[in-house]
Design a protein that fits this description.
Number of helices: 3
Structural class: mainly alpha
Strand content: under 5%
Number of strands: 0
Distance between the termini: 108 Å
Low-confidence stretches: 5-13
Length: 136
């Protein structure tokens, strides 16, 4: 009866290598650090690309990530220059620059009309005639 069960192969440890030897902690830390650095580089490149007006962020795949370095503040060194070079060599990845001015958002508060107490005598007289002009 025991022979009917399939034979179970021993699985290797998730942190182990092919020989069954566990990796040292420093190797795992180095792997985690390099993965963190690469994710941070990609995130910073996406930020720079959006600031530069890139239409499709898939265009970041054209950049060689091995040459990009992070500064002390975890920002890509020369990110703006990199986007300018990419805009010059592959302009179809970026939106066309607009010559019109940017629209200003309207005020969040409604326009408040002056009360009769805030008006001068001339303003009050003209406002009163404007209101009573169409009354019969």
């Amino acid at each position: 009866m025991d022979n009917d069960l399939p034979e179970v192969q021993p699985t290797s440890e998730p942190g182990g290598d092919l020989d069954g030897q566990p990796e040292t902690e420093s190797d795992e830390i180095a792997k985690l650090r390099s993965e963190f650095q690469s994710r941070l580089v990609v995130a910073n490149l996406r930020t720079e690309a959006v600031r530069a007006g890139m239409v499709d962020l898939d265009g970041l795949r054209l950049i060689d990530l091995s040459t990009i370095r992070l500064g002390i503040d975890d920002k890509v060194i020369g990110g703006r220059k990199l986007m300018d070079d990419l805009r010059r060599t592959k302009p179809w990845l970026f939106a066309a620059k607009s010559s019109s001015s940017a629209a200003v958002a309207p005020s969040s508060q409604p326009v408040r009309q002056k009360t009769a107490l805030e008006m001068t005598d001339e303003e009050y007289a003209s406002a009163r005639t404007a209101v009573t002009k169409y009354q019969v």
